[in-house]
Write a structure and sequence with these properties.
The protein has helices at 88-101, 106-122, 136-149, 173-187, 208-221, 233-242, 249-255, 276-284, 293-298, 306-311, 330-348, 357-369, 402-411, and strands at residues 9-20, 23-35, 38-43, 55-65, 67-73, 125-131, 152-156, 158-159, 194-196, 199-200, 226-229, 260-261, 264-265, 267-270, 288-291, 315-318, 386-390, 417-423, 426-429. It is α/β, with parallel strands linked by helices. The protein has 2 domains: 9-65 and 376-429, Urease, subunit C, domain 1, CATH 2.30.40; 67-372, Alpha-Beta Barrel (TIM Barrel), CATH 3.20.20.140. Strands 3-2-1-4-17-18-19 form a 7-stranded mixed β-sheet. A 4-stranded parallel β-sheet has the order 5-6-7-9. A 4-stranded parallel β-sheet has the order 11-14-15-16. Helix 3 links the parallel strand 6 (125-131) and strand 7. Helix 4 runs parallel beside helix 5 (208-221) and helix 7 packs parallel to helix 8. The protein binds guanine (GUN). Guanine (GUN) binds at residues 73, 88, 92, 96, 201-202, 228, 231, 295, 321, 324.
Length: 430
């Protein structure tokens, strides 16, 4: 059978999806209807009007919305699990920059990005916001590979003109800006599912001139931006020295005009130590926080008080932050987010309650999905992004509810098997 055999069809199985940040709706043996790439709803009894649509019966397998990974570094994929005894700035200098410099070699880039795209296609992820490297040609290879998966992504060619290693540093702001424009020209009109995003690595790696130039470029072209914010205490102190007029790290991005607005929101990864002022700034600009608990634990960076941020109605999703995070598997990010929130509550501030499974499933699906539009739920009108999961491989003595099975999948997915995956109604894996 061809991969996208039906335009309109129905998936049947045990269904779970969020309708808001506190509510997971669950259904046994129900029907999820796809029409023209959109979800028409979930029905325990199939309405008459859909009776002629083909049904793909998954028995009692789980049917869940696809997940959104708001922050990951494709080029670091081969570095997973290496250098983990280091903290962020040390890890970047000792391992990461050297690794990324290798993407000058296009043969190597092709192999690495093929492996990355293959594994991302096989994961729970249907949407992602991704860093490449400073290299135009390698980043185009990454975009080609991603386009062929059917995933919907934003991909950035990184900018950095200071504080790197020689092999991974652009000569000056002008060279970096011209390189970015050349990359944008080379990919114009080339992709359907892969979009370009402006990507200053972070303030320590970009001169003031470069930051301002990228802000202008994004504004002129109506483009979104991604960067990293308040991840590590040494980094925050460094930014204060580099941009002495800023009132906080977030304000430094704001001064350079790189935070975007509601119509072209930025993704700011980490935000562990964001002050009330910084949170206000993020809210004002409609920026998304990519919470990267796996990475933040590995790098001993800290714990972001995500429940507090959710209560403030900030826009938040999860990021694996491969390769400071070690897997493209979003259930690992869900688990780390849950665990970190429990430790924050126990050891740091007991007024910030631990996140629930409902809260974190929301962040992984609807929270990050919103960055792409109506994505991450099976409410009517949402894009039909779905993942089918066989969890019958896990022996249990109990008759579990669908909610309990979602909880178990998030705490221990190692025995779960993904058996189907759809993006906007197109099947991209079995
Ligand atoms: N800050 C700047 N670059 C990086 C990166 O590649 N990974 C992480 N975790 N933090 C960063």
């Amino acid at each position: 059978m061809p991969m996208n055999e039906h335009e309109n069809f129905i998936l049947q199985g045990d269904v779970a999806f969020n309708v808001d940040k506190d509510t997971l709706q669950t259904f046994r043996r129900s029907y999820v209807v796809c029409e023209d790439g959109k979800c028409s709803g979930v029905f325990p009894v199939l309405p008459e009007k859909y009776k002629d649509l083909p049904i793909i019966d998954h028995g009692s397998q789980l049917i869940i919305p696809g997940m959104t990974d708001l922050h990951m570094h494709a080029a670091q994929y081969p570095l997973r699990g290496i250098g983990m005894d280091k903290e962020q700035l040390d890890w970047l200098k000792s391992y990461t920059f050297e690794e990324e410099a290798r993407y000058e070699d296009l043969e190597l880039a092709k192999k690495a990005y093929e492996s990355f795209a293959y594994n991302l296609r096989r994961s729970y992820t249907t949407r992602a916001v991704i860093y490449g490297t400073i290299h135009n040609d390698a980043t185009i290879i990454l975009m080609d590979e991603l386009e062929s998966t059917g995933l919907e992504t934003y991909v950035g060619r990184i900018n950095m003109d200071r504080n790197s290693v020689e092999a991974l540093q652009e000569e000056n702001a002008e060279v970096s800006l011209e390189g970015t424009k050349a990359w944008l020209s080379a990919i114009e009109g080339k992709y359907e599912n892969t979009r370009a995003i402006i990507t200053p690595r972070f303030i320590p790696a970009c001169s003031d001139e470069l930051m301002k130039g990228l802000g202008e470029l994004a504004r002129e072209r109506g483009m979104r931006m991604q960067s990293q914010l308040s991840e590590n205490l040494d980094e925050i102190r460094w930014v204060k020295q580099l941009v002495p007029d800023s009132t906080c790290y977030g304000n430094a991005y704001e001064l350079f005009g790189t935070l975007g607005d509601e119509s072209r929101p930025s993704v700011m990864a980490h935000c562990i130590y964001s002050s009330d002022e910084e949170l206000e700034i993020l809210k004002k600009h409609g920026a998304y926080i990519a919470h990267c608990a796996d990475s933040n634990i590995n790098m001993a960076s800290g714990i972001a008080p995500i429940h507090k941020y959710m209560d403030l109605d900030l826009k938040i999703g999860l990021g694996t932050d491969v390769a400071a995070g070690t897997a493209v598997n979003m259930t690992q990010s869900i688990l780390r987010t849950l665990q970190a929130s429990k430790m924050y509550y126990r050891l740091v501030d007991d007024s910030v309650k631990p996140l629930t499974i409902e809260n974190v499933f929301y962040l992984a699906t609807m929270g990050g999905g919103e960055y792409f539009g109506k994505v991450g739920s099976f409410l009517p009108g949402y894009d039909f992004d779905a993942v089918v999961v066989d969890d019958s491989t896990i022996f249990s003595m109990r008759n579990l509810s669908v909610r309990e099975r979602i909880e178990r999948m998030c705490y221990n997915d190692t025995e779960c098997v993904i058996t189907g995956k759809f993006v906007k109604g197109k099947r991209i894996r079995r």
